[in-house]
Amino acid sequence: MTEMTRTAIVTGAARGIGAETARRLAQDGFAVAVLDLDEAACKPVVDEIVAAGGRALGVGVDVADEQAVASAVRRVADELGAPTVLVNNAGITRDNLLFKMSVAEWDSVINVHLRGAFLMTRAAQKYMIEAKWGRIVNLSSTSALGNRGQVNYSAAKAGVQGFTKTLAFELGKFGVTANAIAPGFIETEMTAATAERLGMNFEDFKTANAAMIPVARTGVPADIANAVSFFVGAAAGFVSGQVLYVAGGPKD
Ligand SMILES: NC(=O)c1ccc[n+]([C@@H]2O[C@H](COP(=O)([O-])OP(=O)(O)OC[C@H]3O[C@@H](n4cnc5c(N)ncnc54)[C@H](O)[C@@H]3O)[C@@H](O)[C@H]2O)c1
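^ thats the input. predicted complex w/ nicotinamide-adenine-dinucleotide below
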């Protein structure tokens, strides 16, 4: 490990946007902690990073569990290095119209996105403050602007934006920036599951969505990993508290 190697944590990194972000940050020179619910599920991403010459560690953790988060972050610090980059990416959907939505559907979505981002950030910030340098990137969504069938998810993703802006205020003087990325439609197992729930073939679902997107295609995980790479990089030190919509067109 060179003196300059920094450690990044990516949550929900066993697949989808998180996995691509973990691979990208490893290419950028970070040692990467690949966190997800099941440690074994992290192994393919870790193996890929190591095979490409990088350093990585898989850690099983439920980001909504206070004790599990505390020990996972400690383990990353001990085994990989003090984490000074955190990407809060872990997420779930439990879509339903308001009148049918159960308390369990509401709570699970709020817990993973908001409680999870809070617990992870609280645990990781001390390493950033000690290093007088840190980068936090939180995954929001275009659903923050409202989306039928997603009162829980849209509330969580709008909450992530407020959370991010407050982190920017509190942590800026310690050399820590916080930004949010709000993806539009990205091709992952999450959107494949949405297609299945709607009884649609994924290819047809992608085509239908692409027709509503100004750049005329759906997004891929690399579109988001590129934005994360910018926010955590040296060039973005004066960018904090922002929400970047990566959605193939304008959103407001
Ligand atoms: N795919 C999209 O179109 C899209 C759009 C906007 C925002 N997002 C957001 O981007 C992020 C990644 O989405 P994705 O499409 O890659 O989803 P995905 O379902 O493919 O992957 C999410 C990962 O998070 C993990 N995870 C879920 N709950 C967890 C928990 N409690 N603790 C630890 N890990 C947990 C899952 O096991 C999974 O590996 C999410 O926050 C999602 O809300 C996705």
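Residues 188-218 form one domain.
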